[in-house]
Design a protein that fits this description.
Strand content: 15-25%
Number of strands: 9
Structural class: alpha+beta
Distance between the termini: 35 Å
Radius of gyration: 26 Å
């Protein structure tokens, strides 16, 4: 099958940015000149079909033979076709696009131009780039179609994701297994230093974040040192206002909607796995 654009069947208006991304994907898969892909050279019959469309042996190979992932990718491709971003997917046309891309990248590198990423993609790398592009295009469309009411509802249902801890103060004591104190200090955890402390000591940061005034925590680390925490104070937690993070909320909303819709479409798909059939016949 060739790959190209179709008429719109999407969820709503499409921005110039989305069409630019779609055009970029079109050029990846079909080539600037719009040449017709050759007929597949591999005569082996595919053993997995999703809604009547075959998953090639090559595609199964890059997915390590994982049926679940193969079905998900095929459902994603079919959804993208419905939305008009591609006109089907075939391994042979992808390889032709890969050859053109690698040739272009090599020419750019040879002329002293800037090439982002490797000069030459493998089929595995290129496949995942293309599938990632399809997911991104669909997420952008889902985000654009979301209403403010949709996003506010999502924000309220996932409010804990936007919580900012208050300022936490605690006495930290580190001792040997015999009870000899190695060090004792007062530490403060706040939104301002949360990331730095988390990168430095993830366990300590997590334990601190879970404490309220008067509470304690203790554990023994991999070196046999005993850690004891005693929270001496904590200011109330706050939540990032929806108005300040509506863009991030939209991205998270679209990501969740993408996964939910892919799950629904997968559940409703007709899957024919000839490997199972052949195995049953052999038994």
């Amino acid at each position: 099958m060739g790959v190209g654009t179709q008429g719109r069947k999407g969820l709503g208006g499409v921005s110039v940015k989305q069409w630019a991304a779609a055009l970029s994907l079109f050029c990846f898969l079909f080539g600037i000149a719009g040449c017709t892909p050759e007929e597949p050279t591999d005569e082996r019959e595919p053993l997995l079909y999703v809604n009547g469309e075959a998953v090639s042996e090559e595609e199964m190979a890059v997915l390590d033979g994982d049926t679940g992932r193969a079905v998900r990718m095929k459902v994603l491709q079919q959804w993208a076709e419905e939305l008009g971003y591609i006109d089907g997917f075939s391994w042979d046309s992808m390889l032709e696009a890969l050859a053109r891309e690698n040739e272009s990248r090599a020419e750019t590198a040879a002329s002293g131009g800037v090439v982002y990423g490797p000069v030459e993609y493998t089929s595995l790398q290129y496949y995942y780039i293309l599938m990632g592009d399809l997911e991104r295009l669909i997420r952008d469309e889902l985000s654009a179609a979301a209403t403010q009411e949709d996003l506010r509802t999502f924000y309220e249902e996932h409010l804990e994701d936007y919580r900012e801890i208050g300022e936490i103060t605690a006495v930290v004591t580190v001792s040997t297994e015999k009870g000899e104190v190695i060090r004792e200090e007062t530490v403060t955890l706040s939104p301002a230093n949360y990331r730095v402390m988390s990168e430095r000591d993830e366990r300590l940061t997590y334990e601190l974040s879970m404490l309220w005034e008067g509470q304690e925590a203790n554990w023994t680390d991999e070196y046999g040192q005993v850690w004891e925490l005693r929270c001496t104070g904590r200011t109330p937690d706050t939540y990032e206002p929806f108005e300040d993070i509506s863009g991030a909320v939209g991205e998270q909303y679209a990501g969740e909607q993408l996964e939910l819709e892919l799950e629904r479409r997968t559940d409703e798909s007709t899957i024919e796995d000839l490997r199972i059939i052949e195995g049953e016949e052999m038994n």
